[in-house]
Amino acid sequence: MGTLTTCTLSTLDFNSTVKSRQIPNFRLPKKPKSSCFLCRRSIQSERVWFPRRSFRRLRCYSSSDNGNHEGETSSSGSSNKSTTDSVTTTTTTTASPPEAAEDTRTDDYDSDPPSVSSRPPTISPLGPAYNNFQVDSFKLMELLGPEKVDPADVKLIKEKLFGYSTFWVTKEEPFGDLGEGILFLGNLRGKREDVFAKFQCLLAEVTGNKYNLFMVEEPNAEDLDPRGGPRVSFGLLRKEVSEPGPTTLWQYVIAFLLFLLTIGSSVELGIASQINRLPPEVVKYFTDPNAIDPPDMELLFPFVDSALPLAYGVLGVLLFHEVGHFLAAFPKKVKLSIPFFIPNITLGSFGAITQFKSVLPDRSTKVDVSLAGPFAGAALSLSMFAVGLLLSSNPNATGDLVQVPSMLFQGSLLLGLISRATLGYASMHAATVPIHPLMIAGWCGLTTTAFNMLPVGCLDGGRAVQGAFGKNALIAFGLTTYTLLGLGVLGGPLSLPWGLYVLICQRTPEKPCLNDVTEVGTWRKTIVTVAVFLVVLTLLPVWDELAEELGIGLVTTF
């Protein structure tokens, strides 16, 4: 005759009949203690991952909490919570078949009941704990780092913006330089431009002027969007994080000082263009590497007045360049910083650093604003260069001409060919060439514009290429440009200082636009391609064999 026993496990009942006989009194090896100090029932252990370390979190669900898991807490080796807040209990057992119940019986607890003290026990983690210095470092990083997106706002945005008819979110990832934003990945359910415009309006209604929403290409996407083009995702950043800060007082002071230095370097260029009329001791000091004693600089004062036209020309090109940027940015409500001019004694200036002070709306705006400055500066430079060439070929203007070494025309293949076609073989195939100062100003302006249009980093050319062809194309163009500058193929003797300037000040690409996916169109891509091609022709030097064949400079005199 058997007896009926009942074993209750959670919400399930298992009924089994076992034979009435003596059960051997033996125990399996005891398991490590893992019981609640209040209810003596087993505690579930699960691994919790923290940055660079892992701990075990002990959870005990009591039968009195009705399965609500309200007593869950995590232990990290430094918890000082009270006993009633730190743990609750639950019962976890395993039902055994009748045959196994006849032979074995397991007991996960000790025979002696655990003592309950008035102070809560310290549950040490199985992994190494953070020390106080590390904890303080994490808190300091969170305090000094950029402010992250509010989780409550993320939930609200997902409810109000995204949906089955616009963009179905399937995954969320960190977004931004330090992961301070949220990147929503999923499936686009409409035309990307229309969906993004709708999101912009809804975001302003839901959160106000608090966040910026970016439409970017989905990272590591394995396939294209079924509607054509790349798969898109949406990134959310706070405005104070995604937008540049205002210009500070110190930046205004630095910009003013740099402008004064640029004026001085432009005047110095005008004086150096009169090298054939300068005192011999001054020329020897600047051209002879063995010269030690500096000359009296007051000897240069009489040449300042004649150097001003060239200085005005160089500064005029710089100002036209910056005005072009501002005129293109104003209608599209793009804010720009003040220009930080970079003085240079060879060209008068290396141009200026002008930063975007607002997030660009789309890639077309990036291309337009980036090209407007170089095009304006190049237009003025080309005008001065053309007028200077005409005056240089006029016999009646010999009193205003200055003698320059003919080897200077070998610094640019494009400008050297234009000069050779205008001035003729006899004038160019000589040791010195008489030219008008306007031609020098135009030459320097075109060379400076060409340097700034190189497709690398945050230069105007780099921004234009990034807007027209994307960031991956800019990386390829940038590596090629750095290689050519390092080998001296572009820019001649100016390649090294310009390359160092770009690496130090302008190497970082521009940040993405709000709509960083929509293409710019064929004609903008064509303009950027032609501009880069002209830049290469302008900065490509003329090697000796070609110069001798074309009659650009007297090669045998070098």
Automatic annotation (TrEMBL):
Molecular-function GO term, any one: metallopeptidase activity
Protein name per Swiss-Prot or TrEMBL: Probable zinc metalloprotease EGY1, chloroplastic isoform X1
Species classification: Eukaryota, Viridiplantae, Streptophyta, Embryophyta, Tracheophyta
Record's bilayer topology term: Multi-pass membrane protein
Gene (name only): LOC103342302
Keywords in alphabetical order: Chloroplast, Hydrolase, Membrane, Metalloprotease, Plastid, Protease, Transit peptide, Transmembrane, Transmembrane helix
Provenance organism: Prunus mume
Family to which this protein belongs: Belongs to the peptidase M50B family.
Segments of this protein annotated with the region Disordered: 61-128
Subcellular location: Plastid, Chloroplast membrane
